[in-house]
Design goal:
The complex is a heterodimer of chains A (111) and B (114).
Chain A: E1 3-5, E2 10-14, E3 19-21, E4 24-26, E5 32-38, E6 44-50, E7 56-58, E8 64-68, E9 73-78, E10 87-95, E11 98-101, E12 105-110
Parallel strand pairs in A: 2-12
Antiparallel strand pairs in A: 1-4, 3-9, 5-6, 5-10, 7-8, 8-9, 10-11, 10-12
Chain B: E1 4-7, E2 10-13, E3 19-25, E4 31-37, E5 43-51, E6 54-57, E7 64-66, E8 76-78, E9 87-94, E10 103-105, E11 109-113
Parallel strand pairs in B: 2-11
Antiparallel strand pairs in B: 1-3, 3-8, 4-5, 4-9, 5-6, 7-8, 9-10, 9-11
Classes of the chains: A mainly beta (111), B mainly beta (114).
Chain lengths: 111, 114
């Protein structure tokens, strides 16, 4: 069965420091990989996706993600965190007609 | 364009009541879906549709019905509400795989069943 894991419920980082939010997946074939962000009382917003090509994908708001096929991972990164990056982050895998979402990681950026 | 819209934003029901959550999109997407979001569980797919007149079940379909009479609208019906259906519901539409499978989400409906 297809699954997505986000091993950390919560990630805390100081403003200005680099951040990483981890994601691993289990899916057959070549999946589409996504990161979404959710701010309080809002729907999910698309950050970036990987389909094929360069393993380092750049997205919105300075975020990037690195696809690692051997480790089946797709970690989200940002070189310098902002307080406004504090939100809930979801990794997702698209396959066939559907998506599978991870449980989410709450990112808190401390001033 | 407005993207994906959902109504109502909030709803409180008593056990056994029925209601319909409305969803509409103006991007001419064939694929639409309904998710529920519960703490620590991410989003789980309830039902989806790949075009007008075509619907299918997702991961957690029990207690919910859908129909798709037009490309724009994809309502979700709760037949007999239960406390286990207390959740936040998101409607989404997306582009086809050839256009990147990009999903667009509505703002959500927060449902409480007493």
């Amino acid at each position: 069965a297809q699954s997505v894991a986000q091993p950390e419920d919560q990630v805390n980082v100081a403003e200005g420091n680099p951040l990483t939010v981890k994601c691993t997946y289990s899916v057959s074939g070549n999946p589409y990989l996504f990161w979404y962000v959710q701010y309080p009382n809002r729907g999910l917003q698309f950050l970036l996706k990987y389909i094929t090509g360069d393993n380092l994908v750049k997205g919105s708001y300075g975020f990037e993600a690195e696809f690692n096929k051997s480790q089946t991972s797709f970690h989200l990164k940002k070189p310098s965190a902002l307080v406004s990056d504090s939100a809930l982050y979801f990794c997702a895998v698209g396959y066939g007609q559907n998506f599978v979402f991870g449980p989410g990681t709450r990112l808190s950026v401390l001033p | 364009n407005a993207g994906v819209t959902q109504t109502p934003k909030f709803q409180v029901l008593k056990t056994g009541q029925s209601m319909t959550l409305q969803c509409a999109q103006d991007m001419n997407h064939e694929y639409m879906s309904w998710y529920r979001q519960d703490p620590g569980m991410g989003l789980r797919l309830i039902h989806y549709s790949v075009g007008a007149g075509i619907t299918d079940q997702g991961e957690v379909p029990n207690g919910y019905n859908v129909s798709r009479s037009t490309t724009e609208d994809f309502p979700l019906r709760l037949l007999s509400a239960a406390p286990s259906q207390t959740s936040v519901y998101f409607c989404a539409s997306r582009t086809p795989p050839g256009l990147g499978l990009k999903q667009y989400f509505g703002p959500g409906t927060r449902l409480t069943v007493l």
